[in-house]
Amino acid sequence: MARRSDHSRAELREIIIATGHRHMEEVGFAHFSAREVAKRIGYSIGTIYNVFGSYDSLILAINGRTLALWRDHLERRLAESADGADRLRRAIAAYFEFAAGHRHAWAAIYDFRLPEDTAPPEGYQQQVRAIFEIVIAEVRVALPEDRQGEAEALTRSLLATVHGHCVFAMNGTFAMLGEGAPVEAALQRVQDAVGSSGTC
Amino acid sequence: MARRSDHSRAELREIIIATGHRHMEEVGFAHFSAREVAKRIGYSIGTIYNVFGSYDSLILAINGRTLALWRDHLERRLAESADGADRLRRAIAAYFEFAAGHRHAWAAIYDFRLPEDTAPPEGYQQQVRAIFEIVIAEVRVALPEDRQGEAEALTRSLLATVHGHCVFAMNGTFAMLGEGAPVEAALQRVQDAVGSSGTC
DNA sequence: TATTTTATTGAACATCGTCCATTTTCTGGC
DNA sequence: GCCAGAAAATGGACGATGTTCAATAAAATA
């Protein structure tokens, strides 16, 4: 079968993650199978476990890849316009775009849960914080000087706000309740909080 | 084993749902097992499938039970104070309380997904809308007369907002980002939108 | 009581994550 | 070029899952 010299350990790891990520995008977390990933790369199931140690580690690696792609998309989208006034809108749209464009991989980030007492590995946490930092910068720009102190806490809350809208848009809750413009609704909530519409 | 005369079909259905719900609360969606439910009620696995037809229907019934309990909790909590001014705060707190008090059953509502093209049964959708209606009434009370027209759309958006905060609180995202007071954050966003803090 | 209807069973099947003894492949020293 | 030790890869075995359905048992009916 596959020869050792074909791939270094790091290369093999990368191949498994890439193939696994594709498989995740196609079938979703509920139907994801480590065996299927092994089949697709032409290795046996045992090799997957030799490289990742456990199913959970494999999923974590795949979800980490998804986070990296998400951050890329967010940055690319924000970089498009030199410095338009609608950067927060663009950030929110990018959030929804990625979720819609990678339904299954995006959902897997939240469908998968580590055992109760276990924390995600440091690298994974850093990826989440990297996205957080990107959004903080945008919130800072939108916030008046006398409110810069709120920026961190407010960004956490606004991320949760946008996430909630995105979840309801993706899982059908909004459809059930008759909501047709989730992105605009989320943007409205963000503007309420940032006060950029300037009604005071 | 169990005799037909012991339970009517409807009783058996109820027993399965109750036992299944308990099992779901204990182990969560990922480790839920229809076989285990059968074992606990002293019937064979086949009987579960005779009554519910499929695994998905069983999960749907259990999640429906969770929704009913959630609505009960919300109503009870709102009824506690005759008519305090902090009813929205109470509603939000009730949302979080239920999620925290029924971690696994609550998460199962969102962990489970029907096949892409399938819509939830009418009864299930009604349960979701029932919770929606309860919150609408509270939002109407908090909203000035000239904004009553927004009530429905705003409630959908605020539900998503609170849900997002609740998800991040329950799945560890807030912990990763250093957020320590998710309920207060959610309340702040709701007040931003409803304008009840009256800064204008 | 005899017959029909209904309820219940559990073996069989395909698949899954997990483990690990075994085999294969690679590598460095002679 | 060859051989021993290290590293990589294998795949059968295990217990568990959802799912199906012919066989069985019980109840209802005649």
From TrEMBL, chains A, B:
<dbReference type="InterPro" id="IPR001647">
    <property type="entry name" value="HTH_TetR"/>
</dbReference>
<dbReference type="InterPro" id="IPR009057">
    <property type="entry name" value="Homeodomain-like_sf"/>
</dbReference>
<dbReference type="Pfam" id="PF13305">
    <property type="entry name" value="TetR_C_33"/>
</dbReference>
<keyword id="KW-0238">DNA-binding</keyword>
<feature type="domain" description="HTH tetR-type">
    <location>
        <begin position="10"/>
        <end position="70"/>
    </location>
</feature>
<keyword id="KW-0805">Transcription regulation</keyword>
<dbReference type="GO" id="GO:0003700">
    <property type="term" value="F:DNA-binding transcription factor activity"/>
</dbReference>
<dbReference type="Pfam" id="PF00440">
    <property type="entry name" value="TetR_N"/>
</dbReference>
<feature type="DNA-binding region" description="H-T-H motif">
    <location>
        <begin position="33"/>
        <end position="52"/>
    </location>
</feature>
<keyword id="KW-0804">Transcription</keyword>
<dbReference type="InterPro" id="IPR036271">
    <property type="entry name" value="Tet_transcr_reg_TetR-rel_C_sf"/>
</dbReference>
<dbReference type="InterPro" id="IPR025996">
    <property type="entry name" value="MT1864/Rv1816-like_C"/>
</dbReference>
<protein>
    <submittedName>
        <fullName>AcrR family transcriptional regulator</fullName>
    </submittedName>
</protein>
<dbReference type="GO" id="GO:0000976">
    <property type="term" value="F:transcription cis-regulatory region binding"/>
</dbReference>
<dbReference type="InterPro" id="IPR050109">
    <property type="entry name" value="HTH-type_TetR-like_transc_reg"/>
</dbReference>
